[in-house]
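[Q] Does anyone have a clean structure-token version of this?
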Amino acid sequence: MKLIRKMLDRVEPTFKEGGKLQRFYPLYEALDTFLYTPGEVTQEPTHVRDSLDLKRLMVLVVLSLLPCIFMAFYNTGRQANLAILASDQVQAIDSWRVDALNLAGLGFDPDSFLDNIGHGALYFLPVYLVCMTVGGLWEVLFSIVRKHEVNEGFLVTGMLFPLTLPPTIPLWQVAIGISFGVVIGKEIFGGTGKNFLNPALTARAFLYFAYPSYMTGDTIWRAVDGLSGATPLGALAAAPIEQGMSAVNTSWLAAFLGDMPGSMGETSTLACLLGATMLIATRIGSWQIMAGVVVGAGALSTLFWQIGSSNSMFAMGPHWHLVVGGFAFGTVFMATDPVSAAMTNTGKWIYGVLIGLMTILIRVINPAYPEGIMLAILFGNVMAPLIDYYVIQRNIKRRQARYAS
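[A] Here you go.
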């Protein structure tokens, strides 16, 4: 490591102001701070000492995503292998994937851990690589133009976005989506720390409305051409009212564990809870926001469940709403984004409850959008500054009244 340090120090003047490659200093700085702790220290007499810088914060978030990443590999491959087993249609898989699995000595057995992992990797990794490559290029371009460092925040955005996508998503749409999320959702507002919308959700929302046939429907979840695999929310939304919860094609336990069709990294509530434990323990993710989302969703879904209606979505109880769709993933990793979420303690509860209420309202009242959590979080992002403003104003007035008395 000393050799690398000396090499970086030797070429540093070339990238500094006045050097031949000064325009590309953000690239040098990104590599330097990725390998080593930044050499700059605060010059002013008053500052906060904290070992948790932005780089380490983002690394911890990525580590908390590991259980969901595992499910992106395992469950995606398992759902595809189950579809192949049921139909005996190996030819429905792209030939290059078949060749890659054969070369690795793997097959299509849904009961084989390695077969599931290997098959799922052939869907997730291309999406992830396209996302990181295209999004990373946009990050570097804006850093060079604005002459600031390449922020590590994209490491999290570049991991979150692929986890929210179906396995059959065309790679060109991945490139367009992450471009929209990075440029429109973040960079035009000033970059990391200045965006008021979650960039990963902004990218997913763009694809959801721009290319709905690739983001919704039964045929996109199994990753096998011609074979459908409806998600529990999609199945219930399309079912007649008299069919009720019998339309849901999985058990509650399977939904909790994540053994069902869905977005590649969102299906497992258990994996999300493991990630939540790490985020809360390291004080990176707000437990108030997570609890608020659960309280809001649980309260309204219970009310709708008791009322009943001609809408089939009213038949889903609160215990089901918490384990299906992207509810757990959105609650743990999206709603708690420290940039776009509320920042005051009281505001975090209001913000979380608002997202929970909006999720169930969208899911149940308008089953044309059976997911709900994505739009609810984006709505919460827009309202977060207003929530914090009124919380702060309320505290100011309360203190003024206390001192006046």
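[Q] Thanks! Anything notable?
[A] Residues 261 and 305 are 24 Å apart (CA to CA).
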